[in-house]
C-alpha cells in the first residue's frame, strides 16, 4: 500500500482531469463544561473565589490564548465573556485582585532541574500546567494585544476577501514552512497525502494498531494517483459517558455536491451535546435512528477504492467514525505553520478562499459547509502550488485580520479578541506593569498601562511591594539570563537520564529459567512497564545509585508533598468498569473531588491506572486503605507525578548511559552557571523562590496569582514553559464540595 504513494512533484498534464465522482444527495477539541454549570447551580453563594479541582487542558498544555481567556474572564466575568475552555473560576465576582509574576528566561526544564530549591512554588500552587515555547512577545500574547506587524502594501481588497496579497510585500519565501516542506514547484495530489509515519505522529487510526482493533477499514486499497477523486469529510461529536461520539457526518464530492449528510444516534448516554460547536440539540437528535454501524456500512459502499479523504484535523473525524482510511489530506497540516501550530479552518477559508464560515450568529458549525471548505482548500493548493500560498504570507494575514476587528466600543469589549487592557478600561481600571529597562514589550507603551521600569530585579521586587496593593491587576516581570545553548542541552540530557534512572528498579536474584512473562505481569500490576531487562547479579529491590539519583529519596518525598499531589492517590490495575463501581460506592469515599482516567493518545482507550483527588490528605489516605484492601484488591500509593509533569516526561526521549559515567559540563561552560545575579543556580532558585514567597504573603486574600515561566526560544531549539496558578487562601473556603453525581454514569470532575 505504501509504495503506491509516490512522492513525485509532478502535476497533472495539460488537458488531463482528475476523475470526479457524481454529486448526489444521499441523505474539532471540545471542552467538558456541563458538570461545572451543575456544580455552580447546586452550591450556595460563596464568600470566596476558587478554581476548579482539575484543569481540562489538552495534553496538559495551556496555550497563550487560553491564558488570555482566563485573565479576561477574571476581570469582567461571565456577563461579558464565556467561561475559559480549560479551567473554571467559580464566583469570579468575589475575586479581589489579579497578580501575574513572569520569570523571563526560565522554563519547565529549569523548574524541575531545581525542583527542591523552588520549595514554596511547588507547595503553594495547586494548579500547574505546561505552556508552548514563547513567541517574540509573550506578554502581548497573554494580554491579548493585537500584533502591529508591518505587512507591507496590503491592498484594499483585503478588507473583504483576503486571497490577493500584494506582490510588493517583501517576504523571505525560503523560510516559509510551506516552502520548506513542499518546495517552490506545484505538486500533485500524491505529494499532499500524509505518509504512514506522519499518520502515526498525528494519531490517525491505522491498520494493525492495538488501539484500532475494533475500527472498520474503508476497503479503499486501490492504487492512488494524481487523478484519484477527493472527498471532503467533516464530523460533529457530542460527549457521552464513554467519551466523544459521532452525532453528524457530512461527505462532499469533488464536484461540490453533498453525497452524505446524516445525523447519528450515539450508542451511549449523552452528557453534553456540545451544541455551541455541533449545533446538535436533544430535540434534533431524539427522532434519529441511524447508528454508527449504519454510517460505516454506507461509507464502505460510497467510497471508491482510490478515494482520498480531505478534512481539517481529520484524525478526530476518523476516530469518531471508528474507521481506518489510508489516503488522507489534512488541511490543518497541508497549510503548515511553524512549531507545529495550525491555522483554524475559519481563518483559512477567509484568507485563501475569501469566504466566511462558522459565523457567530449561527448555532454551531455546518458540517457540510466545513467539509466543502476543506475540499476547496485542497484544490486551491493543488491548482496554485506552494509558492503562491507562501506569497500570501498567511502569518501576516492572520495578524492583519485580527487588527480589523472592532475595538474600543461597548460591543468590541465583549468580543473574544478584546485585550485585557480594554477589559480593565471598560470598568475604569488600569494595569500595573513592573519590568526592567532593557525589556521590550508592546505592553509597556500601551494605553491604560502604568509601566514602571527598573534597573534590576532587586528594584522590581522593591517596587512590587509598594505598588501591587494599589492596582487591581498587576504584571511583575523578573528577567534572568538564560543558560548557553550547550549547557541547556547538557542540562536537558541530565534531566532525562535522572528521571529514567528514578523510574528504574533493580530486583533479584532470579533463576535463569524464571518465567519472564509472569515476571512482567507482576511488575505491570504496579503500573505501565516500558522496558524490562534480566539482571542476575542483583540481590535486592532498589533503584540504581548514581550521582544523579543521590537525592532520589528526598525528591520522591517532596513530590509526594507537592500541592498538586497532596490529596491525590494513584491506583493500578483498574478495569474499564472501575468508574461505575466507584460511583456505586461513592458514599464511603468522603471528600472525593475528581477522578482522572488517563487514555492512550493513539487508541483513546482507558489505561489500566487512574488518579483520585480528594479534598484532604486524610481523606486520600482513608480511601487508599480501602482500595488496596481485600475487597478492592488494587495496588496504589500517594501520587508522585502531576498530570503536566507526566505528559512532559512522556514526550522526552529516553536516555541511558553506562553505570559510573559522569556527565560534567565542559570547563568553558562553568561561567554559564553565573545565573540570577548569584554564584550558583541552585542558590538562585532558592533565593528567588523565597523572594516571591514574601511577595505572595503580602497579597490580600482572594487574589488570583499566576507564576509563569514562559520557556525559551532560539535558533538552537525551544523549551516549553510552565505555569503555576492559585487563589490565595482558597483552601480555607467553606464551600462544600459536591461529590454526588448527576446520574449513575457521570461524576462532576471525572475526566480522561
Helix-strand blueprint:
Layout: H1 34-42, E1 50-51, H2 64-76, E2 89-90, E3 98-104, H3 108-113, H4 119-124, E4 127-131, H5 138-143, H6 177-182, H7 189-192, H8 196-201, E5 216-217, E6 230-240, E7 243-253, E8 258-263, E9 270-272, H9 275-278, H10 282-285, H11 292-302, E10 308-311, H12 314-321, E11 323-324, E12 328-330, H13 331-334, H14 345-353, H15 367-391, H16 394-403, H17 410-413, H18 420-426, E13 431-436, E14 449-454, H19 457-467, E15 473-479, H20 485-502, H21 516-524, H22 552-561, E16 568-572, H23 578-584, E17 592-596, E18 609-614, H24 617-627, E19 635-638, H25 643-651, H26 681-698, E20 704-709, E21 712-714, E22 717-719, E23 721-727
Parallel strand pairs: 3-15, 3-20, 5-11, 6-10, 10-12, 13-14, 13-15
Antiparallel strand pairs: 1-2, 4-23, 6-7, 6-9, 7-8, 16-18, 16-19, 17-18, 20-23, 21-22
Helix pairs in contact: 14-15
Keywords: Exonuclease, Hydrolase, Nuclease, RNA-binding
InterPro entries: Nucleotide-bd_a/b_plait_sf, RBD_domain_sf, REX1-like_exo, REXO1/3/4-like, Ribonucl_H, RNaseH-like_sf, RNaseH_sf, RRM_dom
Protein name: RNA exonuclease 5 isoform X3
Amino acid at each position: 500500500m505504501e509504495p503506491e504513494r509516490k512522492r513525485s512533484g509532478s502535476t497533472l498534464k495539460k488537458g488531463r482531469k482528475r476523475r470526479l465522482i457524481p454529486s448526489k444527495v444521499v441523505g474539532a477539541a471540545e471542552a467538558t463544561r456541563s458538570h461545572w454549570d451543575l456544580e455552580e447551580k447546586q452550591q450556595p453563594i460563596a464568600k470566596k473565589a476558587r478554581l476548579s479541582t482539575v484543569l481540562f487542558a489538552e495534553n496538559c498544555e495551556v496555550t497563550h490564548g487560553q491564558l488570555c481567556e482566563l485573565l479576561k474572564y477574571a476581570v469582567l466575568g461571565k456577563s461579558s465573556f464565556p467561561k475559559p475552555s480549560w479551567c473554571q473560576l467559580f464566583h469570579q465576582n468575589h475575586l479581589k485582585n489579579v497578580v501575574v509574576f513572569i520569570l523571563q528566561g526560565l522554563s519547565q526544564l529549569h523548574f524541575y532541574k531545581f525542583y527542591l530549591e523552588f520549595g514554596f512554588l511547588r507547595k503553594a500552587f495547586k494548579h500547574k500546567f505546561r505552556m508552548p515555547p514563547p513567541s517574540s512577545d509573550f506578554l502581548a500574547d497573554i494580554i491579548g494585544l493585537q500584533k502591529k506587524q508591518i505587512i507591507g502594501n496590503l491592498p484594499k481588497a483585503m478588507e473583504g476577501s483576503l486571497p490577493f496579497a500584494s506582490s510588493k510585500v517583501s517576504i523571505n519565501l525560503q523560510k516559509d514552512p510551506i516552502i520548506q516542506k513542499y518546495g517552490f514547484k506545484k505538486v500533485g495530489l500524491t505529494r499532499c497525502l500524509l505518509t504512514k509515519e506522519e499518520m502515526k505522529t498525528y494519531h490517525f487510526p491505522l491498520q494493525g494498531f492495538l488501539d484500532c482493533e475494533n475500527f472498520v477499514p474503508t476497503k479503499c486499497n486501490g492504487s492512488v494517483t494524481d487523478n484519484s477523486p477527493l472527498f471532503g469529510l467533516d464530523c460533529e461529536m457530542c460527549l457521552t459517558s464513554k467519551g466523544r461520539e459521532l452525532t453528524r457526518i457530512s461527505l462532499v464530492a469533488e464536484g461540490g455536491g453533498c453525497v452524505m449528510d446524516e445525523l447519528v444516534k450515539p450508542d451511549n448516554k449523552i452528557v453534553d451535546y456540545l451544541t455551541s460547536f455541533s449545533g446538535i440539540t436533544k430535540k434534533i437528535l431524539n427522532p434519529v435512528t441511524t447508528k454508527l454501524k449504519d454510517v460505516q456500512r454506507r461509507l464502505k459502499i460510497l467510497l471508491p477504492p482510490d478515494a482520498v479523504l480531505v478534512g481539517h484535523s481529520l484524525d478526530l473525524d476518523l476516530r469518531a467514525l471508528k474507521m481506518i482510511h489510508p489516503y488522507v489530506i489534512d488541511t490543518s497540516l497541508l497549510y503548515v505553520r511553524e512549531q507545529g501550530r495550525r491555522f483554524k479552518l475559519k481563518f483559512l477559508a477567509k484568507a485563501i478562499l475569501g469566504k466566511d464560515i462558522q459565523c457567530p450568529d449561527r448555532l454551531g458549525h455546518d458540517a457540510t459547509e466545513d467539509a466543502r471548505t476543506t475540499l476547496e482548500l485542497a484544490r486551491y493548493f493543488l491548482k496554485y502550488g506552494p509558492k503562491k500560498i507562501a506569497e500570501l504570507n498567511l502569518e501576516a494575514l492572520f495578524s492583519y485580520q485580527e487588527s480589523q476587528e472592532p475595538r474600543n466600543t461597548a460591543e468590541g469589549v465583549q468580543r473574544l479578541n478584546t485585550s485585557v487592557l480594554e477589559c480593565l478600561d471598560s470598568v475604569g481600571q488600569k494595569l500595573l506593569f513592573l519590568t526592567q529597562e532593557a525589556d521590550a514589550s508592546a505592553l509597556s507603551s500601551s494605553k491604560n498601562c502604568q509601566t514602571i521600569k527598573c534597573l534590576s530585579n532587586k528594584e522590581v521586587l522593591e517596587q512590587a511591594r509598594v505598588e501591587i496593593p494599589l492596582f487591581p491587576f498587576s504584571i511583575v516581570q523578573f528577567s534572568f539570563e538564560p543558560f548557553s545553548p550547550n549547557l541547556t542541552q547538557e542540562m536537558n540530557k541530565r534531566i532525562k537520564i535522572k528521571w529514567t534512572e528514578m523510574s528504574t528498579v533493580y530486583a533479584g536474584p532470579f533463576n535463569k529459567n524464571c518465567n519472564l512473562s509472569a515476571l512482567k505481569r507482576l511488575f505491570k500490576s504496579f503500573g505501565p512497564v516500558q522496558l524490562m531487562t534480566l539482571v542476575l547479579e542483583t540481590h535486592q529491590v532498589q533503584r540504581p545509585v548514581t550521582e544523579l539519583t543521590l537525592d532520589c529519596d528526598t525528591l520522591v518525598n517532596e513530590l509526594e508533598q507537592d500541592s498538586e499531589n497532596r490529596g491525590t492517590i494513584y491506583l493500578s490495575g483498574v478495569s474499564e468498569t472501575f468508574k461505575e463501581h466507584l460511583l456505586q460506592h461513592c458514599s464511603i469515599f468522603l471528600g472525593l473531588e475528581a477522578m482522572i482516567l488517563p487514555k492512550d493518545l493513539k487508541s483513546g482507550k482507558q489505561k489500566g491506572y487512574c488518579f483520585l483527588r480528594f479534598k484532604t490528605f486524610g481523606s486520600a489516605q482513608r480511601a487508599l486503605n480501602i482500595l488496596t484492601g481485600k475487597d478492592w484488591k488494587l495496588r496504589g500509593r500517594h501520587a508522585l507525578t502531576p498530570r503536566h509533569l507526566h505528559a512532559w516526561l512522556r514526550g522526552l526521549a529516553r536516555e541511558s548511559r553506562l553505570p559510573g559515567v559522569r556527565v560534567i559540563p565542559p570547563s568553558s561552560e562553568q561561567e554559564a552557571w553565573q545565573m540570577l545575579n548569584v554564584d550558583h543556580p541552585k542558590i538562585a532558585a532558592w533565593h528567588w523562590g523565597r523572594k516571591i514567597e514574601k511577595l505572595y504573603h503580602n497579597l490580600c486574600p482572594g487574589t488570583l496569582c499566576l507564576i509563569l515561566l514562559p520557556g525559551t526560544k532560539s535558533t538552537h531549539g525551544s523549551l516549553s514553559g510552565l505555569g503555576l496558578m492559585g487563589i490565595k487562601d482558597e483552601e480555607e473556603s467553606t464551600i462544600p464540595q459536591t461529590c454526588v453525581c448527576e446520574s449513575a454514569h457521570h461524576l462532576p470532575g471525572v475526566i480522561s
